[in-house]
Amino acid sequence: MPLVIENLTKSYGTRKVLDAVSFTATPGRVTGFLGPNGSGKTTTVRVALGLANTEAGTALFAGHPFRMLTQPGSSVGVLLENSGLHPGLTPVQHLRIAAAATHTHQGRITEVIDEVGLTDAATRKVRGFSQGMRQRLGLALALLANPRLLILDEPANGLDPEGMIWLRNLLSEYAKTGATVLVTSHVLNELERFIDDIVIITGGKISAQVTLSDLPTGANLEAFYLDTLRHMNQENS
């Protein structure tokens, strides 16, 4: 299930927050969607998921808008920053609700809890969870129905170094099954270890699209990202 975004344009009042944003997240690959705070990353994701309107452009999941997918909840797994988790519910309870909504077999709940490393906390209420544990539960909800496309907004938030390694391996292996993975993150040195494609957005415009293997000789992701931002700032000054 590819995600094809073409010419997304959106304004808040007189301020244009998305300016003809276009890129593709490809099956079997992890796409890193990067940019500074306020650059339009989250707005692009929200528009793609039908959570915000757009004045122009399209976001198509295997050729269809998100709202037109037959089973959107099981086709696309989503983790957004500040995703709502009920403090009085346990991971098992959250996942039972999600399984019913996505018509996922209840037996999958135990599997996904184990996948994200929450087995020992499966029946504890979320109100006592650390940020990292909440992120793992958010990932469990995204992975529950074995979707063919993952959209993860800052999935590394709150994870310790061991959790970072776990996340890296999880997403790399998930993409190898033929799934599409789109990740936003500010942790560039970690992101560089597992992404395949790079899309950089600044000021609501796409400023770079390359594969990781096509970076200039001797440049790492952080250097390329910072150089791209400097170049765009110079153009806009």
From TrEMBL:
<keyword id="KW-0067">ATP-binding</keyword>
<feature type="domain" description="ABC transporter">
    <location>
        <begin position="3"/>
        <end position="228"/>
    </location>
</feature>
<dbReference type="Pfam" id="PF00005">
    <property type="entry name" value="ABC_tran"/>
</dbReference>
<dbReference type="GO" id="GO:0005524">
    <property type="term" value="F:ATP binding"/>
</dbReference>
<dbReference type="InterPro" id="IPR027417">
    <property type="entry name" value="P-loop_NTPase"/>
</dbReference>
<protein>
    <submittedName>
        <fullName>Drug resistance ATP-binding protein</fullName>
    </submittedName>
</protein>
<keyword id="KW-0813">Transport</keyword>
<dbReference type="InterPro" id="IPR017871">
    <property type="entry name" value="ABC_transporter-like_CS"/>
</dbReference>
<comment type="similarity">
    <text>Belongs to the ABC transporter superfamily.</text>
</comment>
<dbReference type="InterPro" id="IPR003439">
    <property type="entry name" value="ABC_transporter-like_ATP-bd"/>
</dbReference>
<dbReference type="InterPro" id="IPR003593">
    <property type="entry name" value="AAA+_ATPase"/>
</dbReference>
<keyword id="KW-0547">Nucleotide-binding</keyword>
